[in-house]
Specification:
It comes from Companilactobacillus kimchii DSM 13961 = JCM 10707. By secondary structure, the protein is of the alpha+beta class. Helices cover 24% and strands 39% of the residues. Strands 12, 13, 14, 15, 16, 17, 18, 19, 20, 21, 22, 24, 25 and 26 form a 14-stranded mixed sheet that branches. Strands 1, 2, 3, 4, 5, 6, 7, 8, 9 and 10 form a ten-stranded antiparallel sheet that branches. Strands 11-23-27 form a three-stranded antiparallel sheet, with no helix packed on it. The relative contact order is 0.13.
């Protein structure tokens, strides 16, 4: 009995020591956060091959106007925009018809309608692209119209239509819908845990979202990943790196494969550019344009779950992608977002950053209080900028690297403002800062 008791005591000691050792490795390894709280998507799965194109190209904001106020809503545990898009895949949406165009007064009335939910895209897409994303042949094969808002009335049972609206030319289209009910969407609205009062205002450079009162937003921290240049050359040069010619100048590395391809990697800023002079076929349709852009994004990054299409310029064949957190865009220390892709008959060009969000980590940072948008404009006027100077304004997250941990980045909410074709935080334009609480 004494011998058995001794064995049991020894085994218990071994178990305790093993537990302590495992806990040490878990808590000192950033990978411990792999199963952390989901921030922007319905799954923390980072396998890029499981992130479909209709997630990367999707609405990023959801606006709900009840009987009283218009609100920007979000659910941290269930992305409302993606959930509504999934619901719409079962709807029978017929060809849209033009209702109004270039009528600012009518347009403002439409986008401020009560009992209406809006899915807002950061850039215009076409109805044929929407048809592809929803697997709807009526939209995909019909005459293509551009829009960046989808409006759905949740209470008027007689209005069996959805409305597509374009901020650029104030066009409004009506598309009849069959086999649809608003009940699942109403349930999603009730589950929103972020409700920010807003008002949509038409200004010189477009429709701006005004936060009508001060707002408080959380800060976040993320583990980031990066690649060695060799991983990019292997992927971008079709694994044939035998003929690469490499040069370096003050931390800027250039890799040339004959006269057909070139990769420039700036180790100081983490920015890279890739030029493929053999890729001279320009997409002939807007759908092909976005499909090829999506494929290039997949080839570049290991994780694209937080990435969204931010801007699509069909005329210039230019695409911009940004990472999003809680429905808000992340602005980094670059002028092009996360990835910029351009197609031309001289070849394609890709600009991107060697820093990608991987998994969220616990953050002890205080929430940030941001002023109302009207007060932001007053601050800009004091600094010498008129409302007409503002080309765009958004609440977003500012990318700040941690000084003591290069693998972790802090994301702090702030207003970002575009003036003279440059995005800068409000503090840079007006020499003011947000308040921490």
């Amino acid at each position: 009995m004494k011998f058995s008791r001794l064995i049991i005591q020894i085994l218990l000691v071994i178990a305790v020591i093993t537990s302590i050792v495992l806990s040490f490795f878990i808590w000192t390894n950033t990978a411990r956060y792999q199963r952390g709280r989901n921030i922007d998507v319905t799954s923390t799965q980072s396998n890029k091959n499981e992130v479909p194109i209709n997630q990367v190209i999707s609405a990023t904001s959801v606006i709900w106007h009840d009987d009283e106020d218009q609100k920007l809503i979000y659910n941290s545990n269930d992305n409302i925009a993606l959930s509504i898009q999934k619901i719409m895949q079962d709807w029978k949406i017929d060809s849209p018809k033009l209702v109004s165009k270039k009528d600012g007064a009518y347009y403002q009335k439409i986008i401020q309608s009560k009992d209406v939910i809006q899915l807002v895209y950061p850039t215009s897409i076409s109805t044929s692209i929407l048809g592809y994303l929803l697997n709807n042949n009526s939209l995909r094969n019909d005459k293509s119209y551009s829009f960046n808002r989808i409006l759905i009335n949740l209470k008027d049972k007689k209005d069996s239509n959805i409305y597509l609206a374009n901020d650029n030319n104030y066009a409004v289209y009506k598309a009849p819908v069959r086999n649809a009910t608003s009940d699942p969407i109403s349930k999603l609205v009730k589950k929103a845990n972020i409700n920010l009062k807003i008002r949509l205002n038409i200004m010189k450079h477009g429709v701006f979202t005004f936060y009508t009162e001060p707002i408080k937003l959380k800060s976040y921290s993320y583990v980031i990943s990066s690649k060695d240049d060799g991983e990019y050359t292997t992927a971008l040069f079709d694994s044939n790196t035998n003929g690469l010619v490499t040069s370096e100048d003050n931390g800027v590395y250039t890799y040339n494969y004959g006269e057909s391809k070139r990769l420039v990697s700036d180790h100081n800023s983490g920015e890279l550019s890739f030029e493929d002079y053999t890729d001279t076929s320009v997409p002939k349709t807007q759908l092909a344009f976005l499909q090829r852009g999506y494929q290039k994004v997949v080839n570049l990054q290991n994780s694209i779950s937080n990435l969204r299409l931010y801007s699509a310029n069909w005329k210039d064949k230019n695409l911009v992608f940004r990472e999003y957190v809680e429905g808000f865009p992340i602005f980094k220390k670059s002028e092009f977002g996360s990835i910029r892709i351009k197609f031309s008959r001289k070849g394609s060009t890709e600009h991107f950053l060697n820093k990608v969000l991987e998994v969220p980590v616990p953050s002890d940072q205080a929430s940030t209080k941001l002023k109302s948008t009207s007060d932001i404009f007053k601050g800009l006027e004091k600094a010498g900028y008129s409302p007409n100077d503002v080309q765009n304004i958004e609440v977003g997250y500012q990318w700040e690297s941690e000084a003591d941990n290069e693998k972790v980045v802090d994301l702090k909410p702030t207003y970002y403002i575009k003036i003279e074709n440059h995005w800068k935080p409000y503090s840079d334009w007006a020499n003011e800062v947000a308040e921490d609480e």
